[in-house]
Each structure stands twice: as structure tokens, then as C-alpha cells.
Amino acid sequence: MVHQTYDREEQDFPETPNEINLTEMAEEANFQAMLEKYPRQAAAYHYSGLSRRSFMKIMGASLALTGVGLTGCVAEAPDEQIIPYARQPEEVIPGIPIYFASAMTLGGYTTGLLIETEEGRPTRIEGNPNHPASLGSSNVFIQASILHLYDPDRSITARKDGTGSDWATFLAELADVLEDAGDGAGLRILTETVTSPTLAAQMETLLENYPAAQWVQYEPVAQDNVLAGSRLAFDADVNTVYNFAEADVVLALDADFMSNLPGSLRYARDFMDKRRVREDNTTMSRLYAIESTPTITGAAADERLAMKASDVEAFARALAAALGVDAGSAPQFAPWPEAWLDAVVADLQESSGNSIVIAGPEQTPIVHALAHAINAALGNVGSTVTYTDSVVVNPSISTEALATLTEEMANGDVDALIMIGGNPAFTAPADIAFADALANVGFSMHLSLYFDETSQLSTWHIPITHFIEEWSDGRSFDGTASIVQPPIGPLWDTVHSPHELLAAINGTEGTPFEILQANWESNYEGDDFELFWRTALHDGVVADSAFEAISPSLSGDLANALDEAGFGQSSGLEIVFRPDPGIFDGRFANNAWLQELPAPLTKVTWDMAAVLNPATAEELGLVNEEVVELTLDGRTIRAPIFTQIGMALDTVAVTLGYGGDVTAHEGEPSDRNVYAMRTTSNMWHGVSVDLENTGDTYTLAASRWVEDMPETDAARSGTLRTFVDDPDFAQIETSGGANLIPPIIYDGYAWGMSIDLTSCIGCNACMIACQMENNIPTVGKEAVEDGRDMSWIRIDTYYITEGENIETRFQPVACVHCEMAPCELVCPVEATIHDHEGINNMVYNRCIGTRYCSANCPYSVRRFNFESYTNELPIMEEYRNPNVSVRVEGVMEKCTYCTQRINMARIAANAENRLITDGEITPACAGACPTQAIIFGNINDEEARVTLLKEQPHDYGLLEELNTIPRTTYLARVTNPNDALHGSSEEG
Amino acid sequence: MLKDEKPFRAAGQASATFEPQPRPWSTPGEVTDKVTGVIFKNGTPLWWWFALFVSLGLLGLYILMFLSIAIRGTYLWGINVPVVWGMGIVNLIFWIGIGHAGTFISAFLLLMRQHWRGAFSRFAEAMTLFAVVVAGVFPLLHLGRIELFYYILPYPNTMILHPQFRSPLAWDSLAIATYGTVSLIFWYIDLIPDLGAMRDKAERMWVKRAYGTFALGWRGESRHWSALHRTTYMLAAIATPLVISVHSVIGLDFAVAQVPGWHHTIFPPFFVAGAIFSGLAMVLIFAVIFRSGFGLSGLITDNHMDNAAKLMLVTGLIVTYGYLIENFAAWYSNHDYEVALAVERALGTYAPLYWGMIICNAVIIQALWFKRVRRNNTALVIISLFVLVGMWLERFVIVPVSLSFPFLESSWVTFQWTIWDVLTIIAPFGLFLVPMLLFMRLLPLLPIHETQQVAVEEGGHD
What we know:
heterodimer; A: 988 residues; Rossmann fold; Dimethylsulfoxide Reductase, domain 2; seven-stranded mixed sheet; 32 helices; B: 462 residues; mainly alpha; Formate dehydrogenase/DMSO reductase fold; 17 helices; 0% strand
């Protein structure tokens, strides 16, 4: 929950509906005036009786929509006369969702989406199957961003100097400022990374009107090193697109390409498409990963090497040298196994033309330049690696740009600063005193979703529209453009879009929609714009808008440049900074779904931690949850220790975004702000960090992961060689289903699921998808500590260590819908029963909460409503899926195979007098999965994908020896390690 | 062989000494005087008031605990997923166990013609009733939706929905309700002649009327006695299988489930033995209180204590055997999950609790092999207290500890205590002790008519 650090006394009216004493408010003289002026804010006061903490527990973001005119259920009818649907609007049918294609921008790059609306309320975000960056999948950020639309902490009030004002007043003041601006010498625009063609066009106009003005883009998680690398390698701003679908061998140099690149969703899908080992396909790609901190990409790797971040450059240089690339001299030290480098070199050479060497955005420009040179040398360019023009408009090294801007601000050269999005006062590198310099600017305005640190320091704060409620556009990793189409109008008439702001500055007319459409029309070269426009909106993709491939040539003096740069081996403790897997750069800090989502590897929720290798921790005499003080170049933060297997030795990893003054959730210490020690020279890692034990401890809420599984494998795994030699390697001896009771015959549909453990990358997308689809509440940090999280699907993580080697296995576990379900036997009230299609149903109305079913569930997948997590606020209903019951306190719940979707398909099929076809039903988890690891269908249909998967030799049921006959089965994980790196012990 | 060292009498021999043989030092009249005198003559001892004060305090806590959990929810306990069963179930089994000794003594031993049981039967039966009441509340409190508890009962309803009778919990509700009902009837029937005696001994008219009402016009006629004996024997025949069934059903709650640590065929008899074991411990504690607190050692003799202690030893050994078999079965099953649980239970986080249980229930009771111990009040109280603690620990080890180590290691957790868990352990003693203390002051502590026979035949002893 956002801390309101500003002084309430000074403002006309408070912004958030919480913590406001209604009586006090009513007594205030200006309350009545406010009622007239801001009826919506007044409406929000209905929901004032809730403490912040309990509110956050229920749901971090939701909204009083009473006065907004949506058709969602509210507790009581308003006093005014209301009119029901006398004639129902066309297409709006209660219970039948309508999908709108749209797009979301994160870090500048868009991903195509489908936004589901129920009776006008956006309730769900999915990937757009037509969009190249999504192919129907989505990640946790995209899905969870819907909460911000309804976030009660969202700013809905324009403020000047912290006190309430309005847009008209702002425009008047802006006009004055612009009048004095002359050629714009003192005018600066600060945005986040921009790929939006319309915004770029507006900026272009602005810069034409004010030629001396400057446009600066800053983003804390930017692609700066990628850009610098391309400048180093090609002397040009080049965008790199990888084609993993063609790659047989991939080397990731500290590159988490499956989760934090602009094209990650697509890359993960393509990469895993090369790894679907079946009876009739025994080939798969091989991934080598070098990483300083464990990522899901490293977890998916066949060969993984933990290495200090500062040594990766040396490795890249050595690799380049070994591959005969003319890129400077090889290093004189080798903190890696010689055999490893040799194996990589041999494999890359063997697959030249079909391999990829990819460097992570966190690695130095030199590593990127080397990767370009190596890819060129291997002949990968044009096949697996293609180059296009930069997708970002006016790309620049964002830290340099911000540093220059800050200097100008400090010198008093900036008269007017317009900030669109971002929160630079919080996220700026520690050596750029942006927040201080902001005070020097006469007129500064911040357009943002929250009244955050930057807003508080600015003259003006104007609330921004959420992407779900206003028109815009943007480009994705390969340049494909999408229109951001809002399925709903702005929830508040006080919010404004960047397009509106720029139009105001440029003195142009029109709504964001008109501006957008006009821009596209002016650039349209065909003859039927209307058709083009409607198609683009409908498909969510502007056809053929991906950028053409270009062939930049490597800079001639790359070798010299690299030699000049020089490098050395560092010693001592190193620190690496990474975007947080939950709150990213801090922008999702107010999102309870993401906060409560266990980090993919550490499984920590609601917090950041200083992550150390257990061996390093032991060496330093530290144990989990001890708070340490980390000092880098005299800048200090404090963080609790968490040990994580697979971390590079002598490395401590921290994530960005926590510890903000405004964005912190309740109870979170404010000394976690990693930005406070991250400087322009140490954006992603810093050497010689001092670590000191403070003697304090801090409780972390982490669900468990398992090191070294017991023999009875839950998540089974084998090498490709094992699979070829013995396809049945994953089978274990069972009683063969001996049973006194005759088997039940399912002769209609029989629903089943197959989960491919090879493909599962542990990205958590299924968890958020499930939470959103099934109205699963969040419970808060304390309840997570108590083991009462409600997620219906969890991702069990196992680490199997063999010497230096660590194999990470992810296993999504939800209700497996046993045919012989132990839960059903023991429920005394028949609240959990089987249906004729094999689904184990929960009858919430019948459940009295004996919890016997959960005790007897060998998979521990049932979740109990220990507390009332949902029924406190009627407004919570706005984003909920109306097709799924909301559960009350005291009842058990669990995965239903998205039974509401099955029924929807059944109704559609019955209406057309046909059977449900394969692929017609996609449970939420399967739909979101970037790698299509989850396949659902009718196992009585011999042609169904799920049936074919279940016939695979490496298909097995979790705990099948208990004779539960689970309907969800797993395909054992198959890896493709390099035999050259493993002794004979690897056999079998 | 001395008289008071008479060997444990076999059932067949009992009737031989059934005939009353008056002795000058304990005539039937003296027994009546002594038992009724506890209430009418001796006055209320100070310790009783003190005990009542403490118990009322506990009762207050109990009401607080009950209302809090019933209204606010089960989240107050430290339960979670997968440890979904906690104090609600642990204490249910514990108290049902306490309630076992009463019916066992009054019915089972009656059928076995163990007349020494007469000294214990009345208060043990009362203990049973109150313990069953205490126990019966826990399953309700345990529910997530307490207001819908009746779904578990086979009541006629418009939805034509019945309980799911494959679930042991559906058996539980029936077993506990039946046991409570039969115990109440049995206790009351046996109380009728004594209520008559109380009526006769009472001096004030309203007191006479009060006892008289419940005495149902008992006049001590032979046909009354005959009807009484026939009824008690018949009820004993009904109650005896219930002693076995109630705790067997509780045992089946666990044995039917496939949770490692629960799925043992030995559980029903193991649970019954454990229940009688803990029940006898409670009986011995109260017997000592009555002997010294109300001067009844002439009626509850060292012989009686000796016999009860022997019985406690026997049941304790059965329980010990159960512990051995549990671990043997884990090893013999070759079932990885059972083995993992056995190892975690004995060596993991919960090891102190497990070994505490072993020491209390299997080691300390070995002292009862010695006659001097069996005849020493202090020693018996101390051992009994250990047994009570041990048996509580056993239930804790079975319920939350087993649940902490489910099949998938990824879900392993550790039970987290809350203040409400502690209250759930302590406060029910209030609900148990307050009626128990009132019983002491209102009703004859010993069945007068049976004690007359026993006292007469064993010749009173101090």
C-alpha cells in the first residue's frame, strides 16, 4: 500500500479513499464544495472504514466504481434515479465475455493482448495469438497490470504543489509557461522508452515548435548496454531479433532471454519448440547458460555455469579468441573449467549458422559487441540472428541522457520539465541527483499513475490514464506495431493521456483517439484506410509492420576498441542488480498479485532479499533472514539474507524497486532501496561490495523449494541419451492399479491434462492467469508466512546437485483430478464429488470446512479460506470473473480445470449440435503458458493433443503409485547435456 | 498370602464372593453414612473453593476461546495447508480418550464381574460424561463453517442429501453422539438408588424434594433392585462395544486416510488402548483427590488403586507396542513416504515431542511393575500426570506432525503455534472441572449400593 508521506493537512482533499474519517470529512467546510466538484472522489469515501493492511490482504488494487456508471454489482443502488437496461445493448450479454485486441507497453516495447470484458468491465488480460511477441501467451506483468486500473491508490486528482487542482488550471499555467519558452531552450521532456509512432510524431512536432527543447528518455531497466554494444559493434543503433526456432545451440551470456528481453515470450516459445522430445522426435537444441544469479533461463539450460558477473566479459573474450574472431586479445586468466569453454566452442562451430550467442542486457557493451562479432563469425546472422533498425525512437544511452538533464536542471538551465510516466526521482542512479535538481526547475509536471516520489517533488502532478482505458500505440521487439485499444473509457475524468498532454503543448486539437487515427491515416499509403484501421484494431496487429532485416557491417576497429577498453579480474564480493521478478523496477509495487507471487527461484514473496550462494553465506557466517548492510562506494542499503543454490560464489544479488517512500507496502523497511546504491558506472553489477551483519533479523515469507529430491521422484528427468536408449525411463513400478472396485467407465468427455516438464520454464504466468480467472484472493505476507497462500497452482522447484552441476526442475502442481480421488472418500458432506467427465468438483455451498479432504490429498493442492479474504468490500467485485463463484470463509477450494470454460464450450457446442473439438477449451494456465507446456483436452478423443501426449513413453503420473489415477500427468523432463562435460558417471 | 494381596479375580470366581458378609467396621449403613456424609456432614473443604475459583477462570477463558474461534474463524489457530488439522482434532481425541475410562470401568469391568471397579465407577462415569461434552465441542469448533455443522447429520431435508457415509467423520458424529447418550443413561440409572439414599439422608425439605425428584420414587424394594440389576447389565452390554467402537472410529479417521503416519491398520485398537490408558490416568488422579480430599480411602482402597494401576500398565504396554509397530510398519512397508515420516518424526524438528511422548507413555510407566509404586498415592499422581501429557503429545504427534510431512516434500511445513492453540489446550479443563467439582458436592462420589457390597466383602481398609 502506498505510504502517504505528504502532509494531509495541506491539501484540499485526500486522494486515497482509505484511512479517512468520514465524520471529520463531513465537518470540513470544503467537503460540500468538493462533493459538487469531485463527485467521484466523494463516492470513494464509502469505502473508508478499512485498514490499509487488511485492504491489501484482500486485494491490492480495486476501486469504488459506484459513481462510474459501470454495470458491475454494487452493494446498494445510488440515491439518484437509475435506469436499467430496457433494451440490452447489442453484444453485451451478461456472462458472455467480449474480447478486445490491445497492447501493453513495458520497458518501451509492446506485447499484443486480448482484454476480456464482462458487461463492460475489463476482467482479464491474455496474450494475442496474432501478435508476434505473444503468440497468445502472456507474462505475469502483463496479466497483473489489470489490477492497477482498479487500484484505489491510483492517483485521480491533479495537484499543484501537492494540493488538489484541476486540468484546466494546469493548461492555463502551461500556456503561460510555453509562451515564455521561446525556442524551447529551457524546455525538457522526460519520458520512458518510447516506441509509439504517434507519440514520436507528436514529439517531432513539439521539437519543431521548440527547436531548442530536448527530449530525454530514461528507464531504470533500459536496454542501454544493448544499444551501446550495437554502437560499439556496428557504429549504429541496431535492434537484434533472435530466431530461436532455428537455433540448435544457444549460449546465453548472463542473458535471461526467457524472461527479461522485449521478445522474451516469443523467444521462450521458439526455444522450447526445439525441445519437444517425443517418441518420433529425438532431437533437441542445447542451451549453455553462464549466469551470475540463477534465472529461469539458467534453470532451463542443459549446461549451466555460475560465474561472477564481472568474469563474463573475460569468458566472452576467450570464446571469441577460441572461435578465431578478430576481437582483441584473449584474457590471461580463466576462472572457468577449460573443458567447458572447449565444449561450447566445439558445439557452436558444429552448429555454425544455426546457433545463437546472446548477451544479457545486464552485461557490458563489450560482451554485446563480442556476441555480435561471434554470431557474425559463426554465420548466424541472417538465419538465427537478424538485425533491424532500432525500434526505439531516438535511442540514447538513458543514464547519460539523464545525467546531462540533471546537470542542466541543477545549473538552472531548465525552466520547464515535462515528465511523462516513470518515477525518476526514485529510480535515478544514486550518482545522479535528479530529485535534488528537480527543486531547481521552475515549472515541472509529472504525468503518472501514482502520486509518487517524482510527483511529490514536481510543481504539477497530473494523473495518467491506464493503458486499458485510453488509446495509444507502440511497437514490439521486431518492430510490429499495435494499436492500444481501450475496452473501457477512463474510469475517472481527471486522468489524462500523454497524447492529450502533448497535444496541449503542441496546441493541436483532438482526443487521443483522433490524434492516433490521424497519425496513422497520414502515414497510410493504401487506399482503404477504414478497412486497414478496423483490421488493425480487430487483429491487434498492424499488418506487415515488422521492421525489415538490415545487414549492418561490423565496425572495422572493434578489435582495437576492445583492446583499448582493457579488462581485469576482480576479487572480493560482487553485487548484481536485477529487475524484481515481481515488482519489476518498482512500478508494480502496489500490485498484490505480483507481490504475493513467489519469485521463480527463491520463492520469496512480498519482499526483496540479498541472495547469496549457501557456500558464500557459510563463509561469511550468515544465515537466512539475517539483515546485512551492503555498501558499494560509500552507499549503503540493508537487506535480509536469503541463500539460493546456484548463485555464483562471492556474489550477492539484489532486486530493484523495493524501499520506495511512496511505493512501499505497509511494514516494508525503507532501507531496501537498491537504487540508492546503484550508480551509472555500476548499473547492473558492482565489484568490492562490503557486507556487514547488522545482527537484526527480518522474516521473509518464502514458500519451500526442495534440494536433492528423495528417490521417489516427483519431478522425473532424464537426458536425451537416456530417452533414446530407454524411452520408458520415467516409469516406476506400481501396483498396476489393482483394485477391488470395478473401474468407472467414462464414455463421454473425459478431461485430462498433460504438462511437459521439459517445456516448463517456471515463469509463474500460469499462477497469475489462474488467480485472475478464478477470483483467487491474495492473503498478505503474514498469511503466506503461515502457509495459507491461496494459489490453486504452485510451481514446485527441485534442485538436484551432482558435484558442480545443478539441475533445476520446475513442476507446476494443481489438482490432478484423480479418478480415485482420496479427497472424495473422506468428505463427510459430499462437498467434493466426481462428475461423469472425471472432474473432481468442489461444491462450495455444501462444504462445512472439515478440511479432511485437504489432509488426505497426497498432492497438497487444496486451499482453504482460513479467513474471509473476499467479502469485505462490494467494490472488489469489479474485476472479478462473474462466471466463477467467490468463496466465503471456511470453505475449501482448488483447481477446477476451469470448469466454467468447459461449460461455456459445452453450451456453444450443444447449441450447434456438435461435440466440443480439441483445443476449444483452454484452461487459464494453459492459455497463459509461454511455452505451451500445459495441454488440456478430452482423453477419450484419440486424436486430441492431450491423448497423444499421454501416450508418450515418458508420460507419468505424479504419485501414481498411490493408485489415484490422476487425470493430469507429466512428461518427464528431458535435457541434452554435453557428454564431453560429464564423466561416465552421467550414464543412465 | 495376605488378604489385601488377593490376586486379580477371574470373572468366573467373582460370584462366589458376591454375597454380603457384614463386618462390624463397615456395615452397609456406615458406607451410606460415609458417602452421603461427604455432602451433608463434612462441609465444603477450602481446597474445593480454590479449585472452583481456578476452574471458573478457565471456564471463562474457554468461553472466550470458543466464541472467538467460532465467530472469527479457525485462522486463529496455527493451522495451514497441509497441516489442516490442529488443536481442534488433537484435543478432541485427547478428551474422548479421557472419557473412555468411565464406561470401561462401569460397563466393561461390570460384565467382567470386577467388583473393585465399584469404587471408581461413579466418578469415572461422571468424568466420562463431562469429557465427552468437552470433546464433542471440538469437532464443531474445528469446522470452517460451524453454523452448518448439521450437514454432517443424517437429517431429513428437501435436498435429499445425506452425509457421505464412506467418510469416517460421518461415523464419528454418530459414534460420539451414541456414546454420550448411552453413557448418560447408564450413569443416571446407576445413580437412582443413591439418589434415594441422598433423599433419605437429606435434612432440609427442598433438598429432599430435589433428590427425590430424580430418585424417581426409589424405595429399595426387591423388584426395584431386580429391575436395576437387569437394566444395568443390559446397558453394560450395550455400552461395552461402544467403548471399543468410539475410539476405533476415531482411529479410523486416520487409518482410512492415506497420509503417511496415519495409514496404519493398528490404529483402531491402538487408539482404544491409548484412550483407556489416559482415562485411567485421570481416574487415578481423581481417586487420589477423593481419598485424601474427602477422606474416602476406606472405600477407595489401596487394592483398588493397585488394580487400576495394573490396568494402566497393561494398556500402556499395548500403546508402547503400537509405537513399535508403527515404526516397524514404516520400515516393513518399504514405503518411502512412511519411512521419511518415521525419520522426520524421530529425528526432525518435532523430535523432542516424539521422544517426550515415548518417555511419558512407554518408559515412566514401567515403574508400575512395582507394588510399592502402585500403592503410593504421590507416585501414582505423578505417573498419571506424565501419562496425560504423554497421551496429549501422542495425539499431537499423530495429527499435526504427520500432516507436516505429506507425500510431496515441496509442501513440508512446520506447525506454527498461536496463543489460541495454547488456549485450546488449557481452557477446556475449565469446562471439564467445573461440572466435575459441582458433581463432587452434589452427588454421591461412589455408588453406595455397590460400595456396600465391596466394602463388606473386602473388609474396609485404611
